[in-house]
C-alpha cells in the first residue's frame, strides 16, 4: 500500500511554470543562434508570431537545472527588450530529442513544442 502511494505521488509531479517572456511590443529584437550562425529579427509581425507559438507550448514535468540544455544540438533564442534605461536579454533554447521538440528556459522549465516552430527558428533568412 505504501509503495502504491509513493508511485502515485511520483507520477503526479509538478509541471513546469509557464514560460516567462516579455510582451511582444516590448521586444526590440530576437536573436536566433544555431551553431556559429546568428540571425537577428526585429520585424514586429515575426516577433508576435514567434511569441504566440512559444506561449502555446505545453509545460512538462522535466526540470531545467543548468544554464544550457543537455542536447547535442540546440537553437539559442535571445529576446532583447528594454527595461527602463537598460536592455535585458531572456534566453530560451529549442532542441529535438527522440523525435519530439522542446523549449527550455534555464532553471524555469522544459516545454513541449511542435516541429513547425522548431523549423521556423532554424530558418536562416
Mean pLDDT metric: 85
Helix content: 10-25%
Category from helices, strands and their pairing: alpha+beta
The largest beta-sheet arranges its strands as 2-1-4-5-6-7-3
- The tally of helices reads 3
Q: Using the CA coordinates, give the radius of gyration.
A: 16 Å
Query: How many beta-strand segments?
Result: 7
Question: What is the global morphology?
Answer: globular
The span between the termini is 58 Å
Oligomeric grouping of the chains: single chain
* Element pattern in H and E: HEEHEEEEEH
Biggest sheet, in brief?
7 strands, antiparallel
Strand content: 35-45%
> Which residues form runs of ≥5 with pLDDT under 50?
2-11
Can you characterise this structure?
With 125 residues, the protein is α+β, with helices and mostly antiparallel strands. Helix content is 24%, strand content 38%. It has helices spanning 2-11, 44-55, 115-122, and strands spanning 27-34, 37-41, 58-59, 75-83, 86-97, 100-105, 109-113. A seven-stranded antiparallel sheet has the order 2-1-4-5-6-7-3, with helices on one face. The relative contact order is 0.22.
What are the salient characteristics of this protein?
single chain; 3 helices; 7 strands; 24% helix
Concise description?
With 125 residues, the protein is α+β, with helices and mostly antiparallel strands. The chain has three helices and seven strands.
What is this structure's SSE topology?
Elements: H1 2-11, E1 27-34, E2 37-41, H2 44-55, E3 58-59, E4 75-83, E5 86-97, E6 100-105, E7 109-113, H3 115-122
